[in-house]
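It is worth pausing here to work through a concrete case rather than discussing structure prediction in the abstract. The textbook approach is simple: state the sequence, then state the predicted structure, then interpret. We follow exactly that order.
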Amino acid sequence: MAERVVCHPTPPPRNGPIDLFRRLLDIELQRLDVAVRIEAERKIVFPETSVIIHDIQRLQAEVLRLEGASRVRVAGAEDELGALLKSMEADQF
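Step two, the predicted structure:
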């Protein structure tokens, strides 16, 4: 029998390598794609999707901070996430 996977309640340290945050960002973006697809198929909104979106925003900010960017904005990313949140709210019933 496979060993049970246990999630750590503690986030990775903020002084971690930038590659770690980029990898985590990639994973969260993949999770968002799956979550949105499942919501569309089932015609239901899961609150967990908002958590994924917030994680993406935090990870983007951390990557930009580590890259030394002065502005915490990826071109179009905030607009896309905002539009996604608005569409999810509109789909609630």
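Step three, interpretation. The CA atoms of residues 9 and 42 lie 29 Å apart. The chain has three helices and no strands.
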